[in-house]
Give the backbone structure.
Amino acid sequence: MNQNNVSEVSEFILLGLFPVKEVQLALFFLFIHFYCFILLGNILIILTIYLDYHLASPMYFFLANLSFLDICYCSVTLPKMLGDFLRQPKIISYGGCMCQLFFLHFLGAAEIFLLIAMAYDRYVAICKPLQYFHLVSGSVCCMLVGASWIGGFIHAIILVMLTHQLHFCGPNILDNFFCDVHQVIRLACADTHRVETLTFINNGLVILSSFILLLISYGILLMKLKTSTTLGRGKATSTCVTHIILIFVMFTPAIFLYTRPLVPLFIDKVVAVFLTVIFPLLNPVIYTMRNKEIKNSMKKLIEKYGLWITL
């Protein structure tokens, strides 16, 4: 067996968010509430879209898939982090670390590509309304969602292959609450310049190019809507603004973490919390607060099953 492919490190030690035990306990109760809200909020969105035939449109089909991805995405890091708040030391196996790295980037990239699919949906709805149900048919929607998952898989498997080929012989301490690709690479007992460059290019292509493409697309759509006199212009504008807000919420921390040189900064963990916890937390809030259709449908669903909460 090739020794270069065998890791002498069998586990990594995570330093977590904060070393003080009392603070960790407080964070445990805070983040477990966040996790429950993410799960319940996104499950409610999925059920609302599935049960209300008025929401049987491509836009809500993509939104339901986005909510499903959010549930999976936050579940990659949050359960492990919650458990680590209550134990010392915080240990993750080498295989668990590689799995966490893979699924985090797989699901994160899939969400990015799904946002591009949602931008395409809005482009056709606004610029080619008469061809909408032909260009965004059920089969096309399924193909776009499938392409998002495939694109995310390709992006993640490249990162894992680049990382797994490195030789790890110690140290094995990660100053984070999850296995982040940049920090894992820095622990390798080898010259990592080539791997760092390829990782930077891979992340840059996915994150920066998608961010610029989405901003240009929605900028064009907003200009088109500004000069439009068609019925429903206000609703279409509100939907585009919602998508733009979501883009900034997701891409700002991702750009900060993954499209700069691999130099650790003291705020990296704070930004990582925003990307892995706050972004999935804000997604259901943004859509339920800014979308009257889904908000009203949620209220009907809640009233039907006797759950009284204020949305």
Q: What stands out?
A: The radius of gyration is 21 Å.
